[in-house]
Write a structure and sequence with these properties.
3-stranded antiparallel beta sheet; 8 helices; binds manganese (II) ion; 3 strands; single chain; globular; mainly alpha; 203 residues; 50% helix
Length: 203
């Protein structure tokens, strides 16, 4: 379908190669997850935004407007998944460095330490029944772990999301089968991009 002008939702390029996160996330999972799942959400969001007459607006505005309108719930889900996956890719690094001192102090203050934050992530991931997301957020000056179902995100409620781990089965099933906790532990300990979290805090 030819469309005039640019479409609001864009599939971002990955900052690393498909196989850069191995052995913790396989190239096959990345190719499917980014190239099929994320791409599908972006294409659906654009198609539905055009149908709803909203395609001239920025993607974030379309997402918020759709999330507030029950008649646009299908668009809200696609737009939310487009945003959530972009944050997820930014949350991953093949060469992660530990949190810088300023962030490390806040993690110590609000959780007790990185090990406690890791335990909170794994607990939230196991508590999330069905598909969803686990988030490190800043809420009223305090860091916290939240979980959401399906395409929902704390960002929609004005809560700043710093990092996320996708706990939909497509994120881990090829590599970990049903072991969601093992996937979350591997991502948390080997791949989390604390530089990105710090950039979100500073923004
Ligand atoms: Mn996903």
């Amino acid at each position: 379908m030819p469309l005039a002008g640019r479409l609001p939702f864009v599939l971002p390029d990955l900052a690393w190669a498909d196989n850069a996160l191995e052995p913790f996330i396989s190239a096959r999972t990345i190719r499917l997850h980014h190239g099929k799942h994320h791409r599908g959400y972006v294409e659906a969001a654009n198609r539905l935004a055009v149908q709803a007459g909203l395609a001239q607006h920025p993607a974030d505005d379309i997402w918020r407007q759709a999330a507030a309108d029950p008649a646009l719930s299908v668009l809200a889900n696609a737009a939310g998944q487009a945003w959530n996956h972009a944050l997820f890719w930014n949350s991953l690094s093949p060469e992660p460095e530990p949190p810088a001192p300023a962030l490390a102090r806040r993690i110590a203050r609000d959780f007790g330490g990185l090990r406690e934050l890791q335990a909170a992530f794994i607990l939230a991931a196991s508590a999330q029944f069905g598909s969803g997301w686990v988030w490190l957020v800043e809420r009223g000056g305090t860091l916290a772990v939240e979980r959401t179902a399906n395409a929902d995100a704390p960002e929609l409620r004005g809560i700043r999301c710093l990092l996320t781990i996708d706990v939909w089965e497509h994120a881990y099933y090829l590599d970990y089968e049903n072991r969601r906790g093992d996937f979350v532990e591997a991502v948390f300990t080997r791949l989390l991009n604390w530089r990105f979290a710090e950039s979100r805090l500073d923004a």
